[in-house]
């Protein structure tokens, strides 16, 4: 089962962008949850 190299070339930048977005949004979401929990305590 060989993966076509062109598919990898097309999907790689999309995967990198999605990972970067999840990394940035995840960090902000984690800070927001921590702030919420600290405010409740």
TrEMBL record:
Give membrane topology per the record. Single-pass membrane protein
Could you tell me the keywords of this UniProt record?
Membrane, Photosynthesis, Photosystem II, Thylakoid, Transmembrane, Transmembrane helix
User: Which segments sit on the Lumenal face?
Assistant: 1-6, 26-41
Localization, per the record, is: Cellular thylakoid membrane; Membrane
- Parts of the chain that traverse the membrane: 6-30
DNA-binding listed as a keyword: no
Matching entries from Pfam families are given as:
PsbY (PF06298)
At the top level of its lineage, which domain of life is listed? Bacteria
- Function of this protein? Loosely associated component of the core of photosystem II (PSII). PSII is a light-driven water plastoquinone oxidoreductase, using light energy to abstract electrons from H(2)O, generating a proton gradient subsequently used for ATP formation.
Q: Provide the assembly information.
A: PSII is composed of 1 copy each of membrane proteins PsbA, PsbB, PsbC, PsbD, PsbE, PsbF, PsbH, PsbI, PsbJ, PsbK, PsbL, PsbM, PsbT, PsbX, PsbY, PsbZ, Psb30/Ycf12, peripheral proteins PsbO, CyanoQ (PsbQ), PsbU, PsbV and a large number of cofactors. It forms dimeric complexes.
The record's annotation in HAMAP family points to: PSII_PsbY
Q: Which family does it belong to?
A: Belongs to the PsbY family.
Q: State the name under which the record lists this protein.
A: Photosystem II reaction center protein Y
């Amino acid at each position: 089962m060989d993966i076509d190299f062109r598919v990898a070339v097309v999907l790689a930048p999309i995967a990198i962008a999605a990972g970067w977005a999840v990394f940035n949004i995840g960090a902000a979401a984690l800070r927001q949850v921590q702030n919420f929990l600290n405010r409740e305590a």
